[in-house]
Write a structure and sequence with these properties.
115 residues, alpha+beta, Lipocalin, 8 strands, 1 helix
């Protein structure tokens, strides 16, 4: 019985640390990202009420008209940022060598800007 309070105390000290690790995976994705191809295409990943939202900003459409922005919920699973868009869901990962955010089809990569 002497171990009971010590185990409880240890558990109370460790649980906040473990919950912090879960948040860290998403933190790497949060921020403002701009496409490395010079197109001006941007992603903004933000936390809102404990959830992740990804805004995709396309500066111009293919016909040259002003672009559009769309915002979708996202989750981080197994190291991937999964954007939950009903039309075209997409997945992103971080390239550890460059620090770039890379879409799973390797067509777009993004560099983090600002802080």
């Amino acid at each position: 019985m002497k171990r009971g309070p010590a185990r409880l105390l240890a558990l109370l000290l460790v649980l906040p640390l473990l919950s912090g690790f879960a948040a860290d995976a998403a933190d790497a994705f949060v921020g403002h990202w701009i496409a490395t191809d010079g197109s001006g295409y941007r992603l903004e990943v933000v936390r809102q009420g404990g959830k992740l939202l990804v805004s995709e900003i396309d500066p111009t459409d293919d016909d040259g008209t002003p672009g559009r922005a769309s915002t979708h919920p996202a989750v981080v699973e197994k190291g991937f940022l999964e954007v939950q868009d009903d039309e075209v869901p997409s997945s992103y990962t971080l390239n550890e060598a460059t620090g770039h955010l890379v879409r799973s089809d390797n067509i777009l990569s993004f560099k983090k800007v600002g802080s």
